[in-house]
Amino acid sequence: MSGDYNMSIRKFLKQVGVTSQQVIEEGLRNADGAGPHEVKMVLCIDGLEIEHVVTGTLRSDGE
Questions:
Q1: Could you tell me the pLDDT band of residue 34, with boundaries at 50, 70 and 90?
Q2: From CA 33, how far away is CA 14, in angstroms rounded?
Q3: Could you give the 3-state DSSP secondary structure of residue 52?
Q4: How far is CA 6 from CA 3, 15, 58, in A?
Q5: For residue 54, what are the CA distances in angstroms to 1, 3, 44, 50?
Q6: Pairwise CA distance, residues 6 & 23, whole Å
Q7: Confidence of residue 61 (pLDDT cuts 50, 70, 90)
């Protein structure tokens, strides 16, 4: 894989990580109920027929 692809992948993943954390934190601040909260992230790449799903659970310290 070329250095250009590698750099663009890293930049994309950094953007995804930072913005996703901000959205999650805001959502949890505005949530009416306590967790745990089931989460799912879906990565799709147009033209490559790639769909990658990651699931998990967000728990507060006391859970």
A1: confident
A2: 30
A3: strand
A4: 5, 14, 30
A5: 24, 26, 12, 13
A6: 26
A7: low
DSSP tag of 19: H
Residue 63 lies in a domain: no
* Terminal-residue alpha carbon distance, the chain: 42
Q: Are 50 and 44 in contact (CB under 8 A)?
A: yes
Contact 5, 22 (CB under 8 A): no
Do the domain assignments include residue 16?
yes
Range of the domain at 25: 3-58
pTM of the model: 0.76
Tell me if 51 is assigned to some domain.
yes
Q: How many domains does the chain have?
A: 1
